[in-house]
Amino acid sequence: METAAKPSNNHIGRKISRIRELRGIKQETMAAELGVSQQTVSRMEQSETIEDDVLAKVAGVLGVSAEAIKNYSDEAVIYNIQNNYEGSHNQGPVGTHNTCNFNPLDKLLELFEENKKLYERLLQTEKEKNALLKK
After folding, report:
1. Which residue has the higher pLDDT, 90 or 127?
2. CA 127 to the chain's CA centroid
């Protein structure tokens, strides 16, 4: 009986590619940050292993640790998203609500009155200026 070859779960290049895509970083941007060409980044993402010093630089650009890249798995990301998504029911204590300590309409009326007073002062100074010009 033949067994199909399982894809390697330790393919660092694929992990880098996946993290880069999740972070919304293009290969060109990553290449510029690393000081290499886009083709070099593409070859890196196709490599199963990468030297530790290069991995550290890549991790810095991606904003994660080298260990995070080595231990990355799609399953863990999906689990994390499902259990920590802000739309989930796992929101902490029940009844936590943001409340307003003031009435927004009252604040609006206060601002309106303040604006009205400023306009009246401006009008008064304009009248005074016109009176001076007539003299």
Report:
1. 127
2. 54
